[in-house]
Structure formats: C-alpha cells, structure tokens
Amino acid sequence: MTQTHKRETFSGRRAFIFAAIGSAVGLGNIWRFPYVTYENGGGAFIIPYIVALLTAGIPLVFLDYALGHKFRASPPLAYRKLKTAFETFGWWQVMINVIIGLYYAVILGWAASYAYYSFRSAWGSNPVDFFLHEHIKMASDVALSLDFVDTVVGPLLAVWIITLLILSFGVQKAWRVLPLSSCQFW
C-alpha cells in the first residue's frame, strides 16, 4: 500500500519572494562582497563581478527555479527527471545547502552570544580581544583546532533547536518567522 504525501508549498507569491530574496542575497553578499571589492581594486572588480552575475549567477538561479516549478521535486529528483545523468548536480545543491546551514548556524550562535554580551557590556574596552580570545578562544597560531569551546555550545544548541522547531512546523507556519529572517539585513 503506497501513501501519497502532499508536498508543502509556499502560502503565496509574497512568501516565495521573501524566501528567494533571503536566499539570493545571503550573508556572503552582505559581509564578504565589500571586503573583496576593496581588496581587489574597487571599481575594477565590479565589472567582472557583474559579468559573472549576468552570465552565470542569474541564469543558474532562473534555471533552478524553472526546474523546481516544472517538476515540483527536490533538486536531485528534478535534475533526474530532466536527464538521469544530471542528478549529481541536484545532490551537489543538497550538499552545498547542508554545508551552508552548518556554517550559518555557527555564525548565528556567535552573533546571539555577542548580542547577549552587548547587553552586559562584558567585553570592557576591547570588544575584539574579548570576542576572539576569551569568548571563542581563538588560538594565536592559525591552525585547525578540535578544541571544545564551551562558551559557543549554548548559543549553537539554541540556534539548532530553533531551526529544528521551525522546520518541524513546515513552510506554512514558518512564514510567520520568514520575513524577519530573510530581510533582517535590509
């Protein structure tokens, strides 16, 4: 006996647009872009960036949205329906999203703990030193460290619990939180 599971969708166009904007803008464009522009010659860097955006970035986003709209499936399944050999591209998308999710959770944990410390002014006169050396316990030599940083565990667990709660409620109920999270930097 097979059960059919109704796939959840966005409640409307507005919900989809907010999610798409949040996904497209991302932290990379907000945090990294100004730094990379400055380091690579300012205006001279913007020209190849715009060319890459117009020739690769935007067309690939439209392709992804079009495949999702046509096949109403996950990326691996949508690419497999397009052509079996393309399923790997869909799995790459899944893997990249998992890595980004892990990375962003840590950044959100840092930001939450830093906001908590800001209310108490715990860092004194040197916030950079406090955050890097006392809070996240960054070593003086740059190397891969597997040390346990107890001050980050609480905020990171809170971020993961909130994430799991939002995911467990589904797209429809998460919409109440979505506009705030996707456009918080605007």
UniProtKB/TrEMBL annotation:
Bilayer-crossing residues are 15-34, 46-68, 89-117, 152-171
| Gene Ontology molecular function | symporter activity
Bilayer topology term: Multi-pass membrane protein
**What subcellular compartments does it reside in?**
Membrane
Q: What InterPro entries does its record include? A: Na/ntran_symport (IPR000175), SNS_sf (IPR037272)
What does the sequence similarity comment in the record state about its family?
Belongs to the sodium:neurotransmitter symporter (SNF) (TC 2.A.22) family.
* Protein name per its UniProtKB record: Transporter
- Which species does the entry assign this protein to? Aggregatibacter aphrophilus
